[in-house]
Specification:
By secondary structure, the protein is mainly α. It is built from 7 helices and 4 strands. A hairpin with a 4-residue loop joins β2 and β3.
Length: 152
């Protein structure tokens, strides 16, 4: 499952840290997998280094295609979906709409579509069973509406 994403116009340690903060908002995972961006190791050290443990408290798995010749399919799958949608829209006219579009694509990836290699919906593979029916989008919207209104 994709647990965090961040849209920015620049690639630097500050933006990487914003992404990492979003990725751990619901708790620290065992590892976070990124591409080989030069800015990630610095952001990781600032956020997850501990003298007490003598290293990082969250493992940083770097998928570097130039070294391994293995693509980062988990990330690239979503990037390709975003690129396809942007082409369909003939480019985003306003930058404020990009994070909204990314959120919808991540929701679709995590809760709606079967994964291409496992033929399972990622949320169910991760043990999150929401009891969604055949038409998953309306069921997910109904479920989120119930949760939203029960909290107020």
């Amino acid at each position: 499952m994709i647990t965090g994403f961040h849209y920015s116009l620049s690639a630097n340690p500050v933006e990487a840290r914003k992404f990492l903060e979003k990725a751990i908002i619901n708790g620290k995972p065992n590892y976070i997998q990124t591409d080989a961006g030069m800015f990630y190791p610095r952001a990781f050290r600032k956020m997850f280094y501990s003298n007490k443990f003598g290293g990082l408290t969250v493992e940083h798995r770097i998928q570097n295609y130039q070294e391994t010749r293995i693509h980062n399919y988990r990330i690239e799958t979503v990037f390709m979906k975003i690129k396809d949608r942007v082409l369909d829209f003939r480019g985003l006219k306003a930058l404020w709409s990009a994070p909204i579009l990314m959120t919808a694509i991540v929701i679709q990836h995590n809760f709606i579509e079967n994964h291409s290699t496992t033929d399972e919906v990622p949320c169910e593979k991760a043990g999150v069973n929401l009891a969604l029916g055949e038409n998953r989008w309306p069921d997910l919207i109904r479920l989120s509406s119930k949760t939203l209104y029960s909290q107020t």
